[in-house]
Structures are given as C-alpha cells and as structure tokens.
Amino acid sequence: MLLGAVLALLLAGAGPASAHAALRGTDPDDGSLVRQAPRHVTLTFTESVGLLDDSFRVFGPDQRRVHTGEATHADGRSDTARVGLPGKLAQGTYTVAWRVVSADSHPVSGAFSFSVGKRSATTVQVDTGSTEDPLTGGLNDAARYLAYLAAALLVGLAAFVLLCRPADTAALRRPLVAAWWTLLGSTLVLLLLRAPYEAGTGPAAAFDASALGRTLTGRPGLALVARLVLLLLTAAFLLWLSRRRDPKERPLALAIGTVLAAALALTWAAAEHASAGIQVPLAMTSSVLHLLATGVWLGGLVALLLTLRRSSGDGGADDMTEVVPRFSRIAFASVTVLAVTGVYQSWRGLGSLSALTGTSYGRLLLAKLAGVAVLLLVARYSRRWTARIAAPAAVTRTAAVHTRVPQPVGAPAGPDGPGGPDGPEEHDGPEEHDGREEHDGREEHDGPEGPGTPDQAAQEPPASRADPDVRRRLRRSVLVEVAVAAVVLMITTVLTGTLPARAQAEAARQAPAGALPPTTLITVPYDTGTESVNGRGTVQVTLDPARVGENGIQAVAAGSDKGLVVLPEIRITFTLPSRKVGPIDAELTDQGGYWSTNSVNLPLAGNWTMKTTVRVSDVDQVTVERRVRIAP
Q1: Where are the beta strands (DSSP E) in 16-121?
Q2: 66: which strand partners?
Q3: pTM of the predicted model as reported, rounded to 2 decimal places
Q4: Model confidence over 171-202: pLDDT tens digits?
C-alpha cells in the first residue's frame, strides 16, 4: 500500500526541485571567453547556501592559486556566492573550485572555468582538492546514526511509560538513561565535526576555535546547540517524572513530554531535507510527525521487549494484560502517521517515477520500503499474540460484571444466609441434578464454593495457563521487530544524507559543474609533400559547443615529430551542402602559437563540411575536409 501510494503521487506529476542546492549559473559563464578580466566571480544556486572561509579557490593559467577576497553573498541574496578577483589577470584559462553548504546542512561543491583574452594553448588538470575527508565523513555518519537511534529510544521509552502505564518501570530506567547519554554524546560529536565536514578536511580540524565559532553561527550548528539545551531540559523532566507519585499529574507530564519530544524532532527537521525546497512549512511538520511516530513505535518496541522479559522473570506481571493492548493501539496509530508522512516525503524527494530505480535516493527508498514492509509483517504476527494476552483481561472484566452471589429460593437474608453456618444443605450425589436445582426455568449454582462458579472463573481464566507461552512468542516476535527496525533506521540515516532525486534532476539540467561546455574534437591530418618537419602533421580542431549559434574554435598544429609547431596560417570554413549554406569563414586569428576564434556563427543544425587549409610556407599548403555534426 505504501509503495502504491508513492507511485500514484509520482504519476500525478512533479514539482520544482527540493533539498540540496544545485548550481543555477555562473558569472562569468562556464567555459566562456571574456575580453576584459572580471572583477568578481558570482555563483547562483537553486536555494540559499552558507559560505565557508575557503568557499572559492581560483587557479590561473600557470596552475597557481590566485589571491582572492572574502566570499560574500551577492547583493544580499542568500542563494548567491561571490568572491573578488585581483585587478590585473593574465590572459589564459582560469579554473574556479567552489564549496558551499546547502540549506539542508549538506556541503556541495564543484568547479568551472573561464578564459580572459584567449584560451590557454594547453590545459592541465587542476587539483581542486578532495570534496570530503573519508574519516570525517565516516565519523559523521556514525554519529548521525547513533543520534537517530538514541532519539527513537528516548522518545519511545518515555512514551511507553506515560501512555502504556506499566506498574513496574525498573527495567526501563537504565535504557532510558543510556539513550539520553548516547544522544548527548552523538550531538556533541556532530557539533565538533560540523566544521571539518563542511570544509572536507580531517577530524583534527574539529578543535579549531575559529572553525567552531563559525559552526555556532550557522543553522545546522544552532540546531545542534538547541538539541543540547533540550536534552538538559529533558533530563530535568525525566528526574521529575521518576519522582512523580500522584496519578493526577499524568496529563501534565504527558503534555510536557510531548512538547519536549516535538522540539527535539524539530532540531532534525530544521537542518535537513525538510528545511529546503518546496512546501517547507508542510515538509517540516511532516518530518516532525514522522520522527515522533518512529520513536513512539520503534522505541516502544524496545520498551515492550524489556517489560516482557522482566515480567517473565518475575513469574508474570499482573498488568501485562492491560499494557500490551495499550501499546498495540498506540503502535497502530504510529504506523498510520508513518504511512501518511512517509508517502508525502517520498513524493517530495523523488519527483518522478523513473527516479525510483534510476537514482541512489530512489534505490535507498525502495530498500527502506522493503524493510518497513517486513517490519509490518512481523508486527501483524505480534498482534496475534497481543490479542491472546488481552483475552484473559477481557474474560476477567466480563466475569466481574456478571458475578453475583446465588441464593436458594426462600433463603433468609443476612449473615446466616447462603454460605453461612445455617446455609442450605449440600446435595449428595448426581441424582440431585448434579448439585443444581431449577427454579422458574433458571439454573443456580450451589454457592461460592461450588465447582465452576463465576468467582473461580474470574480467578482462573482458561487462557491463563497459556500466558507464559504466549508471552514468550510475543517476546520473540518483538525482538525480530527491533532487529529489523535497527536496519530501517540505518537505511534512513543514509537516505537523509543522499542527494534527493528532485535535486539531482535539477542539477542535471544545469551546465555540468566542473567541466567545459560540450565540445567536439576533430583531428585533421595534413601532408603538403615537403620534407620539412612542418610538411606533415596533424591539426587538433576544438569546436565548442558544436551547436547552432555562436561557436568557438581553437586549432593547434603538431608536426611529424608530434611536437607543437607554429604555422604561417590555418584557415577553416564551413559548408552545409544539404541546405546550400556556405562557405562560412571562421576567420581564425593567430594567438601566438595557435589559431582561434570565438565568434563563428553556424545558423542551422546538420552535418556540415569543415574545410581546413594548412599553409606551411609561402607556396606550400593543403586543404582537408572533415564532416562535423552541429546539434540544434
């Protein structure tokens, strides 16, 4: 049903991208050739981004880093990033490596290039640095998983105590304290690792005071600090709850616990996927409800398992016939909330049906849905034993309502009535209707001491003998649920750190970051028939973007010895025979070692004929034809 609902929403259509900033554009444009050196480099993103001390690194034609100013937001817009450049830039190609933090707390990075005056004759791959330190990323992921797990246990154990009201909570105290300490420790680790995680550096950078100070001013850092404050308030609440004795205070305790749990869940929603993209208020509300329902159900399963183990060790707890059905109803409500919010979040993150199998996010989501399906199947099995445990309680309540003290007709009222010293005689044998008399068509039992009385039925319900076996089976099925739930939580942790399919599709529609525009490389061999080193060789012609409209051309010649050579002239013309267009002269100019232009206009798509004329001397030249595909 969950998968069907997700597919139905995806087939209904897709909206704009959500979560993870995607690069919308650059100024100068990626791969462009500008006549004058720009004063700034500006990036525009699909959502607001946070800046780092090292958000920009600019490398010149000599592969050396160019001194830049401090990264800022352009014109006060939070979805932009800008850095100032020196007043004088040498001619050639520049590479810009960038790294920012998207609104959902995940760092994103990339690179692009532009040229000033002319393109560099040769290009070398620039090392723009690693995008993430493996050790920092591993520690951060482990801390995030522990935080999710501890939060689910903390919320679930507390909710079990307040909502299911077990008589003995001793088995839950240590796990509750352990969950609190684990969440506190994992939050501190996440806070310290925030700066190196954003910058892509090693864990040692976590102890840099300036980096930590920057973390405390960003939204993810503030969310972690708020979580620490809420944990201190939660500790005070749990201490008060452990000393509470008056049942009348239960509504107050439940209200305070709900507010604290919702606030804790909000620290995740405010710094992850729900905080960016489309429908942010609705998404954050859905995320908070999803996290709370997860905690109440999965954490409650652990509480139920521990309670069942303790009741089994003590010979059975009298209140389990009430506690187990209560949790069953609460778990059912939690699953309903999980289904509704999960379907919405899946639709919001996927955006299209093909993303289910075509993206990492979609495949992880399918794995999570499979885990949840297994979890629900085991839960359905557990409900069978829950009903068996609840049956004796129902029998007891029914018997208590219908129990009465029978009296023979005409018996005197008062203390000497039935069952007293002067009560009626007991019947001797089977000939006396098996100890029963009929009066007015109704049967009455002999008295409280007779066999099969309602009092005995209430004291010894028929199902009571099966309780130990039923509880044992329930305990095993709940244990399986807990194990599967741990796996589902692990998949969820990875899923929250994965680029959503919507954002991935948005980024794919933008110019590929870190690469030049699409280019076509044509190798043109030439042979003028002369014996000189320049008489034979090849011309490497680069045409970009090889589309209708303005195109750039660079032509570099290599002699017979494969070394670069300087030729007196290279001329290129284009003809489209099918439409009788041309020849169009590219009008290449000598750039001191190679020939180029950035303004040849090819107006139509199709298979063009490119004629390359290579002149090696005043009298020796040759023209070679090649076919070139120009895309629309």
Answers
A1: 23-27, 33-34, 40-45, 49-50, 56-59, 65-66, 80-84, 92-102, 107-116
A2: 58
A3: 0.57
A4: 889 999 999 999 999 999 999 988 888 877 78
